[in-house]
Amino acid sequence: MNITLLLEHGLNGLQFGLMLFLLAAGLTLIFGIMDFINLAHGSLYMAGAYFAASFTGMTGSFWLGLLAAVIATALLGVILEVVVFRHLYQRDHLSHVLATFALILIFNEGARMIWGAQPLMLNIPPQLAQPVELLPDFFYSSFRLFIIATGLAVAGLLYFVVTKTRIGMLVRAGASNREMAITMGINIKLVFTLLFAFGAALCAIAGALLGSILAVQVGMGESILILAFVVIVIGGIGSIRGALAGALLVGLVDTLSKTLLPGALKLLMPLEMATNLGPALASILIYVLMAAVLFYKPQGLFPARG
């Protein structure tokens, strides 16, 4: 395989992994601290993408649209936490799953009613429309490089906030021992609300950036939500460091396996069979990776507890 093609797909895997991290970071903190299973987290990602497309169309600016989408999605997260989720914290996990699955259906039908069933296009900003030359004769999308830089910047900011600030201390205390944190006088309701707003804002960033590459459409949150759960299981529930490591692993394995496996299989079997089998095996590899990690480290690579 051409080395430049391999490098391109490696960068694509890094970009996809960092976007998965934006979803998984909020999800793992909510799950780790609140012991709350939020299947509607992917719907916030979808809402962020639709908000970005709408606000970009209204303002004519991708950057203003992105900012407005982050604010609107964060407010939506606060509303959901106060109106719906706050009444479910004392319920069992089955109640969490049923309630948030109902929200998925409500969000999907609501998006279909407001924006229609056809996908929306979210154009990338003109400043990042041209590719850049990273190596001699190797050009790469400047917008994808911006996504990578954004993901790394958010990861660095999260690391600083969680490890160096008082807010981060409260988050780490809640992730390690929620009952003790409540006993020590931490306003856990406020922490929960801020966490939902923060997680929703990260979803909006991921939805707007990936929506510019893919398409903004109804149901776009479900498939990526499954990968986000795989990420937090691999990385360790409640761990930001684990979410980053798991997201990069999943992003690289998913992207590179879809590139390398079909070509490798063509050397071992007929072309038609290799073409059909390659993508299927590539999709399975993510779950094989998760099973392998859980076999050797049942609590994930970097568990928050213990």
Description:
- By secondary structure, this protein is mainly alpha-helical.
- The chain is built from eleven helices and two strands.
- It has helices spanning 3-34, 41-59, 62-83, 93-115, 142-164, 166-176, 178-183, 188-213, 220-235, 240-266, 271-296; strands at residues 132-135, 138-140.
- The chain has a two-stranded antiparallel ribbon.
- A hairpin with a 2-residue loop joins strand 1 (132-135) and strand 2 (138-140).
- Helix 3 runs antiparallel to helix 8 (188-213).
- The chain is globular, with a radius of gyration of 20 Å.
What about the largest sheet?
A: 2 strands, antiparallel
Tell me the structural class.
mainly alpha
Query: Regions with pLDDT < 50 over 5+ consecutive residues?
Result: none
* Strand percentage: under 5%
**SSE order:** HHHHEEHHHHHHH
- Give the fraction of residues assigned to helices: over 70%
